[in-house]
Specification:
The complex is a heterodimer of chains A (about 475) and B (about 220). Chain A has 19 helices and two strands. In chain A, α3 packs antiparallel against α10. Chain B has about 220 residues and is an all-alpha fold. In chain B, α1 runs parallel beside α5 and α3 packs antiparallel against α6. In chain B, about 45% of the residues are buried. Classes of the chains: A mainly alpha (about 475), B mainly alpha (about 220).
Amino acid sequence: MTLDQVAANGLLGVLVIPALAAALLAALPGYRATARLNVVATTLTLICALSLFFAKSAASAYFLLDDLNNTFIVLTTFVGWTTSIFSASYIGHELDIGRLTPRSVRFYHAMYQTLMFAMNLALVANNIGLMWVAIEIATLTTVMMVGIYRTHEALEAAWKYFILGSVGIALALFGTILIYMAARPVVGEGINAMVWSVLVARASTFDPALLDVAFVFLLLGYGTKVGLAPLHAWLPDAHAEGPTPISAVLSGLLLNVALYALLRFKMLLAASRALAPGPLMVALGLLSLVFAAFMLYRRRDIKRLFAYSSIEHMGIITFAFGMGGPLANFAGLLHMAMHSLTKSAIFFAVGHVAQVKGTQRISDLGGLTATHPVLGWGLILGVVAIAGLPPLGIFMSEFLVVSSTFARAPLLALILVFGILVALGALLLRLNSIAFGEPRGPAGKAQASYVPMFTHLALVLVAGVYMPPALVAWFQNVAGLLG
Amino acid sequence: MSGISFDIAHLLAGSLVLVSFLELYQDRLYALLNVYALHALVLAASVAWQAFVQDAPHLYVTAVIALLFKAIVIPVTLHRLIVRLGIHREIETVVGIGPTMLAGMGLVALSMVVMLRVTQSADPLAREDLAFALAVVLLGLLMMVTRRNAVSQVVGFMSLENGLVLAATGAKGMPLVVEISVAFSILIAFIVIGIFLFRIRERFDTIDVQALDRFRGERR
């Protein structure tokens, strides 16, 4: 159980760089230099993450590297990198209009890197206790960032997120303790009974009833962080009231990290004699999808609109992983990657739109293509992608989810298609009023950084039109791991 | 494990469930905080006893944290906070005391049925500890649901967390227990500091969570 040199260096890099950067950013004054330092740190982290492709799968008592978490780490560090570029221009504007003070910006940057550290730690952890601690740190840092504007709404959102998130991670801890209890008679006391790779190897001899109960707690606990209905109540508020880069990171990354934790435990159960965990995930996924699709119609705030859309897509992804099998897992992984890229691109656009218009109310936005053509068309492209229209990447992944389900459970596929179509209608309805129609609000020039947004959208477009065979093979390999 | 040490562990864990019930029907914040301090005290005794019978000295650290931090520092701090905010009046509960107690009994029965059935292979102390711990967790959740006041919701969360510590110490030889109890203490400290820093009183003139609801973003 040792890590080879490349893996050890890469894993060390994705953990140490954000941690050091967080300490440094907490100490340094000055907005411009620190925003650049933030970008430099995320760039270096991304390079370390990419180096992991050259490492062999390995596991030690605390850390683990395989193709599954490698995929998640690269996705996380990539979106973290582009978001840090977007964040530099976004935060600069917030400073100019006085919504943030230099002190709160320093705090913001330190928290951004701490969040990156915590997410990477959760992804590389081989110890289920360490993974839990990392997700707790990630929750705490995002709570503080959601409340950073100190307005009534922001404080309320932070409090709600805090309380619901804490209950979620408390339930997840109870589930983790139960897993240990199940493992102890077989593996023996001590650290090994919490090491995931050891647990998976010996899961077939664990007490199945105890594992079943443990998974229910883990699903409810980490499911709260994934934003699955009916445990989603914190998610729209936290997305709407925090700074937009945080909305992008929450939707694009943190939800995935919580889902990753669930997937690890699903793999554990699949290797044991316990009941299959799939149906529970399928049920919660479909519930989230249909519920969020209807809720989309009643939204008046643009960031809340896309927060509900995140619930919808996490529902689809959870559903796909719940169905299991090579094809559904492949579709789920692809959909997760596409959703992360698209949703963060949408939040990049929405952040700049809210800044130039000075409001997030959908009724006060209008005719965006006339007043701000680049932002407007960027947003249109993003919404078309997220609604699942061809030829973009999400169309392809949704098509794969639906077609793989039709072959195995036609009734579930009908519900799935119904939910997707309802959501599509809501998004196009809102898009029409935001992008076209009578221009409303100020038409001043936007100080925006378009590069991150269009990079993401270009990737989604390319993935929809042509998937490189190497990428397909990689995803197929990971889907095989998931079982 | 000999009879008497099992009985004492059993007694302490059972007392924790009993004190959780005491918390459920407190209708004044001061009294609620005092009962919570008792809750933490019973937890400290229970953890210390587990440390003794399991011969696991590191668990004494968790016991000391429970004693100093949860039974003394947190209640005193919250007490001062309540005085400063001037909210020592009655707690507004969403559901009446009677139905809450009935629901609590239902939850305890549920946790006994669930945990005792699935842990037949585990050793008797651990399985009863787990059943009691789940009862404490569920009663804490019930309290968070039935209270509107932010401080009593926090007390509900803290007693929920005491249940988790009971479960973690009952699982013999579990690694990282001390680290996890420290992590939880940090979380609770953040919550309490949060009430201070966010100055909910100044912002909202009340820490009744219902008032916070009016500031939901979409209702502006």
